[in-house]
Design a protein that fits this description.
globular, 12 helices, single chain, mainly alpha, 2 strands, disordered C terminus, 321 residues, 74% helix, Rhopdopsin 7-helix transmembrane proteins, 3% strand
């Protein structure tokens, strides 16, 4: 049994607002500081959160309107093309960025010489980040805009039924499911778990002679996000690949529809997962909270002073300020 659209509206709307606020706050924390902005390990997180913010403000918001009314936000071809392009490009870019970030952590910790020069940083850091966004942009622009597609627009179906231009071609659908969804999710999970194992093994082998606190922070930065991919994205994408390989669409169709819906929770909950590894951000939040508490708790303070009087040595006079 599929989740009713009225329930889907609230399942999107409730986490959407705090997710946007947390995303903006974390991006501000990472961008306002020159040290955080220039740290190589933060670049993938910044791009992840930026793409996620675009996804939340456009695709997720348009889905809320679609589930509430049963039609697209605007009944025009231009809007439908913009919707399917933004949805496809941003979601796949986030998946590939996450996969590369899990690989790059191994380079940052165990092969820092690979990033020692500007040329090496270009090939092993900036170029993969650029490809993670440029490749989905080129692929979906060609598939959805340049190549002809005879499938008619349907304003009462998700993405106006335009993603069928990709999913209805068997070999392209199989490539799309494996290269853009299954493989990035597998890479994210496997490389994140392997990184934790390597860090623990290296610490054991050196018998604590190296300070691993910073390395553990790098290793743990992506683990909460990796868990989201393993639990929410991997199962429906495996089923998508099975459909592309010939499995009838009637098999587990209700589960697939609901799993695709919850797949968007990866985007919604990534900002919360990213804050778990930013210890300085947590300290700033606690300091801000305590500062607000102190301001609200300000009360009159009574001080005492002495004033000599005739026949007395001193007298206590209260001063209120």
């Amino acid at each position: 049994m599929k989740i009713p659209n009225s329930v889907r509206v609230w399942l999107f709307l409730v986490p959407l607002i705090p997710s946007i606020l947390v995303t903006i706050f974390v991006l501000y924390h990472l961008l306002v500081s020159r040290a955080h902005r220039k740290a190589l390990n933060n670049h993938a997180i910044i791009l992840l959160l930026s793409c996620g913010l675009i996804e939340e403000l456009t695709d997720v918001a348009w889905y809320i309107h679609f589930y509430r009314t049963g039609t697209a936000l605007s009944l025009t071809r231009a809007f439908c093309l913009a919707w399917v392009l933004i949805s496809s490009i941003m979601f796949v870019s986030i998946s590939i960025l996450m996969a590369w970030a899990s690989i790059e952590r191994h380079i940052l910790i165990f092969y820092p010489n690979w990033l020692a020069t500007k040329q090496k940083r270009f090939y092993f850091h900036y170029l993969p980040l650029a490809i993670s966004i440029l490749w989905p942009t080129i692929f979906y622009f060609v598939m959805l805009i340049i190549l002809s597609c005879d499938i008619p627009f349907n304003y009462k179906r998700r993405l106006c039924n335009r993603y069928s231009c990709v999913s209805d071609i068997s070999w392209i659908s199989l490539w799309d499911s494996i290269a853009h969804y299954i493989l990035p999710a597998f890479i994210t999970v496997i490389f994140s778990l392997a990184l934790v194992a390597r860090v623990l093994y290296s610490k054991y082998r050196t018998r604590g002679r190296i300070d691993w606190r910073n390395y553990k922070k790098l290793a743990g930065q992506l683990l909460p996000i990796s868990a989201l991919y393993m639990l929410l994205q991997l199962p429906p994408m495996i089923l998508y690949a099975a459909y592309s390989g010939g499995l009838p669409w009637s098999v587990a169709n209700s589960y697939y529809s609901d799993a695709l819906f919850f797949n968007y929770w990866v985007v919604l909950f990534t900002p919360f997962a990213s804050t778990m590894s930013l210890s300085q951000l947590g300290t700033k939040c606690r300091n801000l909270f305590l500062f607000c508490q102190r301001k609200r708790a300000v009360s009159p303070e009574i001080l005492t002073t002495t004033r000599p009087k005739l026949g007395q040595t001193s007298a206590t006079v209260p001063i209120i300020r």
